[in-house]
């Protein structure tokens, strides 16, 4: 099966540095096939016969901890899940071609608790938009993600779980790369 894994918080401000060539090799040593990395933020597309997402996540996180000596949360989706995520984008009125860096998806480690979702939504202020669909948080930050209060850390703290965020252009590119 084809998977897309997204590492949380590597190569940011000189912290938790991992070269993509080394990461690719680490995945190959784990027995994964057709490994492709995309940009320095830790996106890896790969094939595996392992079907249990929790087993894949655990295996990758342990391998990184052993190799690099620090913990890195990993969020994984299948190629089909990525297709569904793209098709479910709730921002039909937004020009995704033009504003692809202002639309983002925070990929959650699990489906959030409804009470926590309600608490997060209270922090969304116009013109920003936030929609949660199962394990994805869709964001629209027209003034730029860097200026938004709805950062990855903020979402994690409000929902009480791991999240890793990618802009819409990266989401589309990861899906395209996973088709090969």
Please supply descriptive tags for the structure shown above.
alpha+beta, globular, single chain, Alpha-Beta Plaits, 8 strands, 2 domains, 180 residues, 4-stranded antiparallel beta sheet
* Spatial strand arrangement across the major sheet: 2-3-1-4
Mean pLDDT: 95
Q: What proportion of the residues form beta strands (DSSP E)?
A: 15-25%
**N-C termini distance:** 12 Å
Write the layout of secondary structure elements.
Elements: E1 2-7, H1 20-29, E2 33-38, E3 43-47, H2 53-68, E4 74-78, H3 79-87, E5 103-108, H4 114-121, E6 129-133, E7 136-140, H5 152-159, E8 163-167, H6 168-178
Antiparallel strand pairs: 1-3, 1-4, 2-3, 5-7, 5-8, 6-7
Helix pairs in contact: 3-6
Write structural notes for this entry:
The protein has about 180 residues and is α+β, with helices and mostly antiparallel strands. It has 2 domains: about 1-80, 2-Layer Sandwich (Alpha-Beta Plaits); about 90-165, Alpha-Beta Plaits, CATH 3.30.70. About 35% of the residues lie in helices and about 25% in strands. The protein has 6 helices and 8 strands, in the order βαββαβαβαββαβα. The strands form 2 sheets. A 4-stranded antiparallel sheet has the order 2-3-1-4, sandwiched between helices. A 4-stranded antiparallel sheet has the order 6-7-5-8. It is globular. About 30% of the residues are buried.
């Amino acid at each position: 099966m084809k998977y897309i894994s997204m590492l949380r918080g590597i190569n940011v401000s000189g912290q938790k540095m991992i070269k993509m060539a080394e990461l690719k090799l680490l995945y190959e040593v784990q027995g994964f096939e057709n490994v492709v990395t995309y940009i320095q933020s830790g996106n890896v597309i790969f094939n595996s016969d392992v079907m249990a997402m929790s087993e894949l996540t655990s295996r990758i996180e342990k391998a990184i901890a052993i190799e690099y000596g620090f913990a890195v949360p990993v969020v994984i989706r299948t190629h089909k899940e990525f297709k569904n995520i793209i098709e479910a984008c709730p921002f039909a009125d937004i020009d995704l071609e033009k504003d692809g860096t202002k639309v983002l998806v925070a990929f959650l480690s699990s489906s959030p608790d409804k009470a926590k979702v309600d608490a997060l939504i209270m922090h969304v202020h116009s013109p920003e938009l936030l929609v949660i669909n199962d394990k994805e948080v869709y964001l629209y930050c027209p003034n730029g993600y860097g200026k938004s209060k709805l950062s990855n850390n903020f979402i994690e703290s409000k929902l009480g779980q791991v999240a890793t965020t990618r802009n819409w252009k990266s989401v589309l590119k990861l899906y395209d790369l996973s088709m090969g």
